[in-house]
């Protein structure tokens, strides 16, 4: 069994998986915490391991785009959990080629390793198809993968929460909209709904534009803001809760 970790700029997600399992994403246990609650992780892992008696973890594969402080903190927490303390973490990195995917970034190491993992996951779920993979987290990334597994490149825009917050913070008259606000579509007749409608249109519009530009036949949408954006998309799509984690699973399986 392996422990997979996806540390983004808002939340740390994790999953325990049998890397030989045929089905990608068949987690034995999983969880997510905001960075402010990261201290909870050690206890969460310990509880998950206790619920899986007779099974042991023999590797940790972690993708981190949240900086060195988060990496050090994860190492400290893992070192304190019985059953995990002896393991060295493999820090997943963007390299020129891995798990059947070629990295077409001009400088492959500059690509966020979560985007590389997401592309590996997308190609594993839809091999032989040109794909747009949209990961809607703190930032929204919209990336193009070819049918034969080349990461062509992509787009980075502020995530849905960041877009709405930047309007609220940088204008005198625009309020902060609630994260769980009802979702308007089109031309809103009040300020809160107009902000949300505008930000959703920007997110969905960028994904649709990328889909057309790439001539894609598959659109995968994922990340914390995906439930809000997915149903505004005017194209067929698959909503995958965490495509980065699927990519880490595919990578662990290919090793
Ligand atoms: N309950 C929630 N908690 C945190 N973020 C949420 C929640 N609901 C929606 N979101 C949106 O999802 C984003 C976080 O998604 P996530 O995929 O975890 O991001 P990251 O990978 O950057 O950490 C937030 O920035 C926000 O836009
Ligand atoms: C674009 C990102 C900030 C997205 O991070 P997230 O929203 O998943 O927390 C991250 O993938 C990153 O730091 N990328 C490095 C720059 C690049 O990919 O070109
Ligand atoms: K993202």
TrEMBL record:
GO terms for molecular function: ATP binding; pantothenate kinase activity. It is an enzyme of class 2 (transferase). A monovalent cation. Ammonium or potassium. GO terms for cellular component: cytoplasm. Pathway: Cofactor biosynthesis; coenzyme A biosynthesis; CoA from (R)-pantothenate: step 1/5. Keywords: ATP-binding, Coenzyme A biosynthesis, Cytoplasm, Kinase, Nucleotide-binding, Potassium, Transferase. ATP binds at residues 6-13, 138. It catalyses: (R)-pantothenate + ATP = (R)-4'-phosphopantothenate + ADP + H(+). GO terms for biological process: coenzyme A biosynthetic process. Pfam families: Pan_kinase. Its cofactor is K(+); NH4(+). The active site is at residue 114. It comes from the Bacteria. Substrate binds at residues 105, 112-115, 191. Its main location: cytoplasm. Its EC number is 2.7.1.33. Homodimer. Catalyzes the phosphorylation of pantothenate (Pan), the first step in CoA biosynthesis. Belongs to the type III pantothenate kinase family. This is Type III pantothenate kinase.
């Amino acid at each position: 069994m392996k422990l997979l970790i996806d540390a983004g700029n808002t939340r740390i997600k994790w999953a325990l998986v049998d890397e030989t399992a045929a089905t990608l994403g068949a987690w034995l246990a999983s969880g997510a915490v905001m960075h402010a609650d990261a201290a909870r992780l050690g206890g969460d892992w310990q509880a998950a391991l206790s619920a899986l008696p007779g099974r042991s973890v023999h590797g940790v594969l972690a993708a981190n785009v949240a900086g060195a402080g988060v990496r050090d903190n994860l190492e400290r927490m893992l070192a304190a959990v019985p059953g995990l303390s002896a393991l060295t973490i493999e820090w997943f990195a963007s390299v020129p080629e891995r798990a059947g995917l070629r990295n077409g970034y001009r400088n492959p190491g500059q690509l966020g390793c979560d985007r590389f993992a997401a592309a590996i996951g997308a190609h594993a779920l839809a091999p032989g198809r040109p794909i747009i993979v949209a990961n809607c987290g703190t930032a929204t990334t919209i990336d193009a993968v070819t049918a034969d597994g080349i990461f062509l490149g992509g787009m980075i825009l502020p995530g849905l929460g960041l877009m709405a917050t930047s309007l609220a913070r940088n204008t005198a008259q625009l309020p902060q909209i609630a994260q769980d606000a009802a979702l308007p579509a089109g031309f809103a007749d009040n300020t809160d709904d107009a902000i949300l409608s505008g930000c959703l249109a920007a997110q969905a519009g960028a994904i649709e534009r990328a889909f057309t530009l790439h001539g894609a036949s598959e659109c995968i949408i994922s990340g914390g803001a995906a439930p809000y954006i997915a149903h505004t998309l005017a194209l067929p799509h698959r909503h995958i809760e965490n495509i980065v984690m699927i990519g880490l699973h595919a990578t662990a399986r290919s090793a």
